[in-house]
Amino acid sequence: MNPSDPLLQLVPLYHVNGWGMSFAATMVGAKLVFPGMWSTNDPKPIIDLMINEKVTRSNGVPSIWISILNYLRAIDPKPHFNMKVVSGGSEPPVAMMRDLSELGIEVIHAYGSTETSPLTHIYVIKPKVLSRMRNDEYWPHRAKQGLPIFPMERKVVNEYGHDVPWDGKTPGELLERGPWAIREYFNDKRTFDSFHGEGFDIWWRSGNAVVIDEDGYMKIVDRLKDLIKSGGEWVSSIDMENYLMAHPAVYETTVIGVPYPRWGERPLTFVVLKPEYKDKNKNALRKELLDHLSSRFAKWQLPEILFVESIPKTSTGKFDKKVLRDQYKDYFSKEKINEI
């Protein structure tokens, strides 16, 4: 970011320090653009600001950029931008990143938390990695959380506290420490369960299940609390959501694990359809989506699909899985199982 880069601050300043970007803009003397009150149901005011203020930098969770992308798809002629935007909070769908890039909006995935004040990882591509990458690997690779920033430290451990290999396959919990990471919660009992080690060798437990590949790139598999264990095997809700987002009928989607008598848990998927698909036969669409998932997921991993008008979100635009888990905790009752 430099003084000629107007920043559209879409992330609320109360959310993880606004991801730190407003401070960076102030430090370099860049123009700050604040959107005021707006809704993902009507992103036109945001797009007007992007055009009128000649915005080149912005930030936001994927659901915000999905809303902006869908609006841009529907208008003609389409504006072209020169923007780099930071996406975080959850993994950006590959289809969203690719389609926004065609409109001049480059999505950069980053990762951090309130406890790390906030940034610890950002995606940059190493020349040696790019040189050996196939075309079909490029966008999935860009969806990773990326590489750690200096001088933050990280490690990934299994349930016994042992380091897991950097093979891009073996998941474990991400632990972090560094000069701007916390070492305890003030007067909060969470301190006892949220840290690993003792003394100077203390690490903050992120609660994220991640894998790291041989080049050091991190990918969040899921929040530990969001991982779905079905029939003794783990299912990543993030991977399922992102693959569903690649289907042309899907406007937005989220996946939760719901108690299931036979297998412990089963994925339950909520899908909001794009307007042009809402009058289509739902049974045919459901089969089409399951066939789409079958090319990536095993039969036992396939979810039950519910078509909904909207998905509840938090004040920062993330899907509120806590609300959905509470509302649908009894969805797979014994009576329901007998019907399936």
From TrEMBL:
The keyword Ligase applies. InterPro entries: AMP-bd_C (IPR025110), AMP-bd_C_sf (IPR045851), AMP-dep_synth/lig_dom (IPR000873), ANL_N_sf (IPR042099). One of its GO terms (molecular function) is ligase activity. Gene3D superfamilies: 3.30.300.30, N-terminal domain of ligase-like. Residues 2-186 form the AMP-dependent synthetase/ligase domain. Residues 240-318 form the AMP-binding enzyme C-terminal domain. Keywords: Fatty acid metabolism, Ligase, Lipid metabolism. The keyword Ligase applies. GO terms for biological process: fatty acid metabolic process. Coiled coil: none annotated. Belongs to the ATP-dependent AMP-binding enzyme family. This is Uncharacterized protein. It comes from Vulcanisaeta souniana JCM 11219.
